[in-house]
Each structure stands twice: as C-alpha cells, then as structure tokens.
Write a structure and sequence with these properties.
The strands form seven sheets. Strands 1, 2, 5, 6, 7, 8, 19 and 21 form an eight-stranded mixed beta sheet that branches. It is built from seven helices and 27 strands. Helix 4 links the parallel strand 11 and strand 12. It is α/β, with parallel strands linked by helices and 461 residues long.
Length: 461
C-alpha cells in the first residue's frame, strides 16, 4: 500500500488531521491507520470566540470517513515500526509507504504503581474502560478515586449510590484547572448538587472488532448520558476528600466485605471494592523506529512550530507530542481535547503546505490558551494564563463570586489582563479574550472591572 499522507490514530487529533487533509488535498491519497473500526469525530462545533470553541465528540464507524472523502482509506491495524529513511511504516499485517506521516496515537493512562498487581485498580481513558468501570461499579459499595484532573472530578461528581473516597495530592480539588477559590465555589455542587434524575445509559456501537480499542481519548462530556451507579442505597452513601495524600500501598483483605485495602501517605487505611486511577497520561511509544525521535521529559515527541518531529517528513499532533517551539506569552500546552483537535487540523495544513513547498504562518489558535469544559455541572472557560502560569509572583488577582451562580477571576500584570477563569454563564469570554490579546491598560478602571453593579462589557464595546 502507498499514500501521499499517512495518519496514525483514530482519536480526535488523527481524525481531525485526516479530515483536514482530505479537504485541502482532494486529489491526493490519504490513509488513516486506526486500531479500531470505531473512530472519534468532532460534531456540533461552535465557535464561541476567535480562539475558543465548543464541540461534542461522537464515536462512529470508520466508514463515515471513507464515504465522505473518496481519497481516504482507513486501515484497521496497529503501528509497529517506522522506517523514516525509506518512508514506510509496518503494521501488524501490512507495509505502507508514505510521503508524509503524522503520528496521532494519543496517550495511555499513567496508573498508580500498584495497578499491575490488582485487577480492582482500573484506569479511565477510552470508551471500553468506561464501560468496564460502569459495569464493575454496579455491585460496589465503596470506591477510591485517585487523581485531581478533569476525569477524576467528573467521576466523583457523577457517581452515585456508593461511598467515595477522593484522594488528591493537592490542597484543593480540581487543581489541574482551578485555584482554591474556585474549588471552594464548587464544593456545594459536589456535595449537594447531584440530580436524582438519571439518564438512560445508551451508546450506539456500530460494529465490533477484534483489535485492541485503545488510545482514542474520551471526548468532552463523556459522562453526559451515563448512569454511573453503585450497589448502595442512596440515603446511606457518603463522600470524603483526602487532601495532600497519595496511595502508598494496596493489599488483599481476607475475611472482609471488601477485596482490597488502600493505605495513604497519611497512614489512613481504606477498605474498598474498586480503585479508579486517574492520575494523568503518558505519550504512547509502543512502536520502533529506524532513528530515535527527539523526546521531551515525559516521552512526548518534540515538535517544532510546524508540528514536525526530529525525523524528516514525520509530524505529530495531540497527546503524543510536546510543543518545543518558543510559545506565545499567553499559550501553553495541556493534554486536552481542544488542543488535540487544533493540533491535528494544523498538522494537516503544515503537511499540505510542505508537500507543495509553500510558506505557512503558525495558526492563530496558538496565540492564546483557551479551553471550554464543564466541571461539577458548571460551564467553565479558561483563558490565557488563567492561574498565573509563567508570571512568577508578579501579578494580581481580581475576584467576583456569586454563590452557586458564578465565579470570575482576572489575572493582571502591569494593569493588563493576562488570564481569566469564568465559571457559570458569565458571557464575558469574548471581552476577556480581546483584553488579553490587545493588552489594553486597565489601570484607569480600577476595581470597577468586576463591580457587579456595572456592565463591564459596556466599557469595551
């Protein structure tokens, strides 16, 4: 087999890359290598601002791509080897020559060290792992959730009819995204805001296959239509958060109602049915190469401002790569769905331009960090250096909070907005984006910027 462009990975980055290539290069052959016949596609894409988008992720059969784009072929196989000298890849069952190659295989869960020894410790990364978790939870009465990122926060918020012990190594919840003030704002929703109305668990599965279905990360709101329910009566369930703690050991329990016991760094012992490890991800590297890639500290493939790796004509996008160019002041990399999509689309533009020896300017999405998500039932917008990243201690914070309604945080340096956290329906995202990009001096406005009696958008129309 042979193609001008070969993309590896059926997740958000890979499919976005293949779709963009098919649009830009309708006359060129494109092969997408996916370990599964099910791929992730972006749906309901909505541009909130210039840099901020909102979208859903659908899991659909790979025939969606081949029916929509006549120049796309999908190969259901696993990449095992890359020969960058002769420009071909080896999969489990075939050899494919390429002109340009883009690696979008994502990352795999970084489970706690004890996971390999206990089947009761599971990770949540892709659709199959979610199904496994939901099924095993049905008979569980006590669960330990380890981690403090998006998936851990969503699991703790959504889970019902089971005792939950949330183990976080930070001083506050959801530290990956928010500060202690926002964490405090979320607390009522976490303990009281769970709706008794449960959705029906429905998910269309187009086809089954014999391949290992892994690597394609969950999309935003993956839990929206899931009923994540344990085996206890609702009135008797409990939730406890263990701050600044980590798991030190796990042991099997004999003659107990629970199969295992987790011991924390504070010496607390927690008997439980199940441990959910949601402690981040590591880039996939389950393939060999004829030459070594330049890698970052976490093993990610280093890419330059055109998504090129250190190997000729080999690009990378999404969780498998690490941005190694000098970034714009207000942008930084996080392993998020939004950036996976942006990188996949941009890598396609770069490959297309380079195949025709055309010059290319870096995409505007890398000017400013922008992410839209949901936490504990609230709309959450993160813009720029929202937690003071890169600023050292030379910044100030303005806050406005209305209990159970909104939380607004502005990060300012030299009276200029550098970042913002917007929780709830604030409708301030476009204004904040403009203020960050334009670096307007806000000194004359003082604390009135967040005065609840003043419509601050009127200042900047």
């Amino acid at each position: 087999m042979e193609a001008t462009f070969v993309v590896v990975g059926g997740g958000i980055a890979g499919v976005s890359c293949a779709e963009t290539l098919a649009f830009l290069e309708p006359e060129k052959t494109i092969i997408l290598i996916s370990e599964s016949s099910l791929i992730k596609t972006v749906t309901n894409l909505h541009a909130i601002t210039r840099t901020l988008t909102d979208f859903d992720i659908s899991e659909t059969d790979s025939s969606y791509l081949t029916n929509k784009y006549l120049n796309v072929t999908v190969v259901h196989d696993k990449l095992t080897e890359i020969n960058d000298t002769e420009h071909f890849v080896i999969t489990s069952s075939s050899k494919i020559k390429y002109g340009f190659l883009c690696l979008c295989m994502g990352a795999e869960p970084k489970l706690i060290p004890q996971a390999s020894s206990f089947p009761q410790i599971i990770g949540i990364r892709d659709t199959d792992s979610v199904e496994n978790f939901v099924e095993r939870l049905k008979t569980a009465k006590k669960v330990v959730v380890v981690g403090n990122g998006g998936i851990a926060s969503e699991v703790v918020f959504k889970i019902r009819n089971v005792d939950v012990h949330w183990v976080v190594r930070d001083k506050h919840i959801s530290a990956t995204f928010v500060d202690p003030g926002a964490a405090e704002f979320f607390q009522p929703a976490l303990t009281q805001g769970k709706s008794p109305q449960e959705p029906v668990y429905r998910r269309m599965r187009y086809s089954e296959d014999n391949f290992t279905r892994s690597g394609a990360a969950l999309g935003p709101d993956w839990y929206k239509n899931l009923s994540i329910t344990g085996g206890k009566a609702p009135a008797n369930t409990d939730m406890k958060i263990h701050y600044e703690a980590e798991v030190t050991s796990v042991e099997v329990l004999e003659n107990s109602d629970f199969p295992i016991q987790v011991t924390l760094t504070n010496s607390l012992r927690i008997p439980c049915d199940l441990v959910v490890s949601a402690t981040g991800v590591l880039p996939r590297r389950n393939f060999t190469t004829s030459h070594e890639f330049a890698r970052s500290e976490d093993g990610g493939l280093q890419v330059n401002e055109f998504m090129q790796t250190s190997l000729k004509d080999v690009y990378a996008a999404g969780d498998i790569c690490t941005a190694s160019w000098p970034p714009a002041k207000h942008w930084f990399q996080m392993k998020l769905w939004t950036q996976a999509r942006q990188m996949g689309c941009y890598a396609a533009k770069c490959m297309s331009a380079h195949s025709k020896n055309e010059a290319l300017l870096q995409d505007f999405c890398f000017e400013m960090f922008a992410h839209s998500t949901k936490l504990f039932g609230y709309k959450v917008i993160l813009l720029g250096l929202y937690n003071g990243q890169k600023l050292g201690r030379n910044y100030e914070i303005l806050l406005r909070m209305t209990k159970e309604k909104e939380y607004i945080k502005f990060v300012l340096e030299d009276n200029k907005l550098q970042g913002a956290v917007l929780i709830g329906d604030t409708d301030l995202e476009e204004m904040c984006e403009n203020l960050i990009l334009n670096q307007l001096d806000l000194g004359p406005y003082g604390d009135d910027i967040l005065n609840p009696n003043i419509d601050i958008e009127d200042y900047f129309d």
